[in-house]
Amino acid sequence: MKLQKGKSAFGRAMDDVAARGDGSLISRDFPRLIEVERARVHPRADQPRRHFNEDELRQLAESIERQGLLQPILVRPMLDARGEYEIVAGERRWRALGLLERPTLHAIVTNGNAEEIALVENLQRVDLTPLEEARGIQALMESHAYTQEAAAGALGWSRTQINRVLKLLSLPDDILAECATLHLSRNAMVELALAEAGAERARLLDMLRNGASVKALREARGQKSEGPGNPVPQPHPKASPLQRAMTQVEGGLKVLSRTSAPLDNDQRRTLEALRAMIDQLLQG
């Protein structure tokens, strides 16, 4: 499809739809796109968000007035009211259109799980804080009994990203409160979460107060494994081959335990094989 200069993404998508007999539209980009009376679209009763900033709504309304509705509202049919729809995602847009007194709106109809879709859409926003992301992912996993892999698939993230963000929930409340005042990035907060509670975490937090970069935090954490307080075990020059091998395994495991990255499948298989060999030796 040739792009038309000056048209929004939504406007271009509207040029690529085919009318249906019931007035709804089918597009290659949207599952089912309809134009519906705003009065027939209703907020979810269990919408967790109760407060909507009036100034922000007015700004959004002004943007829609100038640019149009760039992202349609997501709705699903109400089971107990034919021709009525419930908002799955986009209540702010629905309210802004009300300020503009728009009689109709465009919406995408879905039959998916409303709670899951709303959580996923909320997590894909760019203005969430790292802690809001972590709590949202936790809610998604708890609500649907998702593993980290399943949550990653729903969000289009990697499992490593999910794992790292969830580590933020291990930080104590006082540190989380200070992170909020410092407006720290997700990666900076993850480095704090990966640090050992106590002196190391306090040292990293002090570095952040002075504007340290994430790279500096990682280097500071990495120094611990080489420092005099936590050395990597080295085999004694006169140690037996078995003792040297055991010392090397111990050192490798200590280094592995301090890494920020989750284990991949190959690493898990290797560790499981080592555990089986150790169990066999202990039983001998």
Task: Tell me the structural class.
Answer: alpha/beta
Biggest sheet architecture: 5 strands, mixed
- What name goes with the CATH superfamily of the largest domain? Conserved hypothetical protein from pyrococcus furiosus pfu- 392566-001, ParB domain
Spatial shape? elongated
The number of distinct helices, counting runs of at least 4 residues, comes to: 13
> Which series of helices and strands comes N to C?
HEEEEHEEHEHHHHHHHHHH
Helix amount = 40-55%
Rounded Rg: 26 Å
Return the CATH class of the largest domain: Alpha Beta
Q: Unreliable segments (pLDDT under 50, ≥5 consecutive)?
A: 1-30, 225-229
Spatial arrangement of strands, main beta sheet = 3-7-5-6-4
CATH fold topology of the largest domain: Conserved hypothetical protein from pyrococcus furiosus pfu- 392566-001, ParB domain
Report mean pLDDT, rounded to a whole number: 75
Q: Into which percentage range does the β-strand content fall? A: 5-15%
**Euclidean distance between termini CA atoms:** 71 Å
What is the strand tally?
Answer: 7
Q: Give me the CATH architecture of the largest domain, please.
A: Alpha-Beta Complex
Features:
Arc Repressor Mutant, subunit A, 13 helices, alpha/beta, two-stranded antiparallel ribbon, 284 residues, 10% strand, 7 strands, Conserved hypothetical protein from pyrococcus furiosus pfu- 392566-001, ParB domain
